[in-house]
Amino acid sequence: MNKRKKIYEGKAKILYETSDKNILIQHFKDDATAYNNLKKAKVEGKGVLNNRISEYILSSLSDCGIKTHLIKRTNMREQLIHKAEIFPIEFIIRNIATGSLTKRLGVTEGTTLDRPLLEYCLKNDELNDPIISKEHILNFNWASEEDIKQIDKMSLRINDLLLGIFRAIGIKLVDFKLEYGKTYNKNEDKYEIVLADEISPDTCRLWDVKTEKKLDKDRFRKDLGNIIEAYQEVARRLGIMPEETNIKEVNFNKKLSIKFKKR
Ligand code: UDP
């Protein structure tokens, strides 16, 4: 499918139009940003790993009945997705207290929560993605009550599935961010809510079960080093990265020679 006009460029991804108005190309960049763009860097290879990890996770969720925007990964950095009208909300799901939750409420870092905690943030960089309540969402028509009911249910189901996927490979799913959109389903002639964006170490906090080593973007946020090695470790444990591949030896600016395992 031919790549056409760039229609959106975010911090870590670019969206391109295709010849089909309902299908977009999602391109994963190597750019890493934190603290609302105050900290920026290129992390070579990150886009390739996130593309593959997110494809794996979204396909696994899809196998379990979760509707997603993903059609298929087409190359090392790109995937075809259904065009969706994205809700202007970041849906945060937490299992263990850390990050902004501990800062905001003074909860002890690392506390296991009694039940998954759902939070909503407004997607607005200028305002620093403020936390909002369901009442704000309904009042300002950012989503309907029915949409939120369905999304909350989907988020809890996704959390259950992801907890299982990561527990099986010795990783604690601490928290993560989801985005949802509405797409037109041609076959059923109706709009439906789909999971959009990506699920990767950029959007999740993942701690090694035994050592609590961080295997996610906190390595970048907190200057812990070895970012790409951590993302590679997640891919390797998920079984989608050949053991022998040493990503450091790969020049990601050249044509990539890594062969990911087929699912
Ligand atoms: N998160 C994200 N994008 C954002 C904000 C948060 O992917 O714009 C993810 C983050 O990686 C973490 C979870 O959402 O897994 C909760 O993030 P938190 O609110 O603690 O954010 P912080 O302010 O600590 O980045």
CATH superfamily of the largest domain: ATP-grasp fold, B domain
Structural class comes to alpha+beta
Helix content: 25-40%
Ligands in the model, by name, code or SMILES, are: uridine-5'-diphosphate
Give the H and E element order.
EEEEEHEEEEHEEHHEEEHH
Average pLDDT rating: 92
Alpha plus pi helix count: 6
Please mark out the parts with pLDDT under 50 across 5 or more consecutive residues, or reply none. Answer: 248-259
Beta-strand share of residues = 25-35%
Beta strand count: 14
CATH topology of the largest domain: D-amino Acid Aminotransferase, Chain A, domain 1
Shape: globular
Q: Provide the number of structural domains.
A: 2
Question: What are the salient characteristics of this protein?
Answer:
263 residues; alpha+beta; Phosphorylase Kinase, domain 1; D-amino Acid Aminotransferase, Chain A, domain 1; 2 domains; seven-stranded antiparallel beta sheet; five-stranded antiparallel beta sheet; 6 helices; globular; binds uridine-5'-diphosphate
Describe how the helices and strands are arranged.
Blueprint: E1 6-9, E2 13-17, E3 23-28, E4 31-34, E5 39-42, H1 46-63, E6 70-73, E7 78-82, E8 85-86, E9 89-96, H2 99-105, E10 112-122, E11 131-132, H3 134-139, H4 145-167, E12 171-185, E13 190-196, E14 204-208, H5 218-221, H6 227-238
Antiparallel strand pairs: 1-2, 2-3, 3-7, 4-5, 6-7, 8-12, 9-10, 9-12, 10-11, 12-13, 12-14
Helix pairs in contact: 1-6
